[in-house]
Amino acid sequence: MITGIKGKIIEKNPAYIVIETTGGLDYLVNISLATFTKIREMDEVRLFTHYVIKEDEHQLFGFFDEEERSIFRLLITVNGIGVNTARLILSSMSVRELQNSIVTENAKVLQAIKGIGGKTAQRLIIELKDKIGKLSLASTPESEKKQFTNNNNANAALSALVSLGFPKNSADAVLEKIIKTEGFDLSIEELIKKALKLL
Questions:
Q1: Strand partners, 27
Q2: How far apart are CA 105 and CA 32, in angstroms?
Q3: In CATH, what number is assigned to the domain containing residue 185?
Q4: Which of 132, 129, 131, 111 is nearest to 121 (CA)?
Q5: Per the domain annotation, does 146 fall within a domain?
Q6: 188 & 171 share domain
Q7: What is the number of structural domains in the chain?
Q8: How far does Cα 83 stand from its chain's mean position?
């Protein structure tokens, strides 16, 4: 079982990174938008990991802190929530926002996430309310948002959305609509979060 990974980041994307370890092996690690925000300026990183083994695929998921990994592992215990949906949830809201939504039984907020319908939102609340309420989560301040004046962020956001499983044409159209409405000054994280609400 791989429980952590440390090394040099040789490729970085809002949906995944490639880490070169001291042994010379390169690992593709799936990440959430929350983790990307925290490691965006880093060249080397140590991540907590969750390793998924299936008959036809092996996937490694990385998290900046143990709290996010704990939430991820709770999410995938819920019927209907797979690893990719769990990552999508953690890319749509912060750990703190997710915890509050479940503890306060705010199904409406959960249903705003792509792929989470009414029944799934209720299952999340029923199955995780007690468990997630017992977790002691450190309050993490929002990372400082950087502003840009070109479309590099749109390209990075598009790549991330495609990696998350959305059709390229649909994601591109949604991003174009957001940029036309709000301009080019949105960060990658803001673009992705807004797109996730529209896709």
A1: 19
A2: 23
A3: 1.10.8.10
A4: 111
A5: no
A6: yes
A7: 3
A8: 11
Residue 60 near residue 27 (C-beta atoms within 8 A): yes
Domain shared by 115 and 102, yes or no = yes
Q: Which of 162, 121, 149 is nearest to 175 (CA)?
A: 162
| 22, 15 Cβ separation under 8 angstroms | no
Q: Residue 183 and residue 144: Cα distance in Å, rounded?
A: 19
User: pLDDT by residue (tens digit) across 123-165?
Assistant: 999 999 888 866 655 443 333 233 333 357 888 888 888 888 8
What single DSSP character describes residue 160?
A: H
Tokens 């390169």 belong to residue:
26
Cα(144)–Cα(136) distance, integer angstroms: 24
Q: What is the pLDDT of residue 149?
A: 33
Q: In terms of residue numbers, what domain contains 31? A: 4-63
Positive or negative, the Cα torsion across 173, 177, 180, 184?
Answer: negative
Is 76 a domain residue? yes
